[in-house]
Amino acid sequence: MQELARICESLKTIRGTAQLLILSCLFVIADCVTQALALYDSALAQAWPALAAPRAKNALAHALQSARHDCDLLWEQYEEEQEAKVEIADFTEEIAENGKTIHELEKAKKQIEIEKSDMQMASEEAEIIEKDEEIDQLKRNHGNHAECSRCRNTEQKRSPEAKEEGGGGSE
User: Dmax of the chain from CA atoms?
Assistant: First the structure.
């Protein structure tokens, strides 16, 4: 149960961290796009009056190359963000699956504990029944033993009488 709570807390922390990471990536990308556009506008504004000059072509080419470079950097950041989103989704899914597995294991554990308790109760009842049967058997044996003892006592009492009767007639 504590493991499940710990995993849930980890999941909440990871989700919060992931959301903050995505949000910060979006702000960084937005800032970079804004800066790239500002640089492009600035370069274009500076290069436009110089178009008449022979260096204008080079200045414009340089501004265009800088803008492309900035766009490439933004694209790389975008791709990294998408990869991070996929990883976060994978982690979230894995944590959810582990949470389900833990829940299933806890459920099975409870069922086993119930079955164990039932078996212990059945075992105790069987022991009580067995002891009762042993007591009944001992009582029957004791009753038979007492009966046998009475029979012996009766026989022993008769034997001396029979000896006296048998012995008295021969004298």
Answer: 174
Give the CA-trace dihedral at 24, 29, 31, 35, to 10 degrees. 160
Answer whether residue 74 shows pLDDT above 80. Answer: yes
CB 77 within 8 A of CB 24: no
Residue 45, pLDDT > 50, answer yes
Q: How far apart (Å, rounded) are the C-alpha atoms in residues 166 and 74?
A: 134
For residue 169, give Cα distances in angstroms to 123, 140, 156, 158, 159.
Answer: 67, 43, 20, 16, 15
Domain boundaries, the chain: 2-124
d(CA 162, CA 7): 95
| pTM score over 0.85 | no
Please give the backbone phi and psi of residue 72, each rounded to the nearest 5 degrees, phi first.
-60, -45
Q: What is the pLDDT of residues 20-42, one digit of tens each?
A: 777 777 777 878 778 888 887 88
What number of residues does the chain have? 171
